[in-house]
Specification:
single chain; mainly alpha; Helicase, Ruva Protein, domain 3; globular
């Protein structure tokens, strides 16, 4: 598994207001689903400290229908440590996570059909 390291994004956040703490961010993910995770990853890359500090495992577990075991399996597929924060994702891990998220979106659409 790849080691965890700190990245440093210094760009200011986007125009949308950001959650003030991790609980608000996770609440947004639980209601906004994979789009909210994508937004969180983008915001972290643009320097949002709240988004950058959150653990990837917490983001996945906040998704409706994703429990601790599923989140653990998804993290393993992406090569991400359980305790890894969004700010510590390497480009390959971020790419893998985005692929997994896109599959979750596809699966949700198929469930509705």
């Amino acid at each position: 598994m790849t080691g965890c390291h700190s990245g440093d994004a210094e760009n200011p956040g986007g125009a949308a207001p950001h959650p003030h703490n991790e609980a608000e961010l996770l609440s947004e993910v639980s209601t906004g689903g994979v789009l909210a995770i994508s937004r969180t990853l983008r915001d972290a890359g643009q320097g949002d400290e709240t988004a950058a500090r959150v653990r990837v495992s917490a983001l996945l577990r906040a998704l409706p229908g994703v429990g601790p075991l599923t989140a653990h399996d998804l993290l393993g597929l992406a090569g991400i440590c359980e305790a890894q924060q969004v700010r510590d994702l390497e480009p390959s891990q971020l790419g893998a996570l985005l692929q997994i998220i896109s599959r979750l979106t596809g699966a949700a659409h198929q469930d509705r059909d």
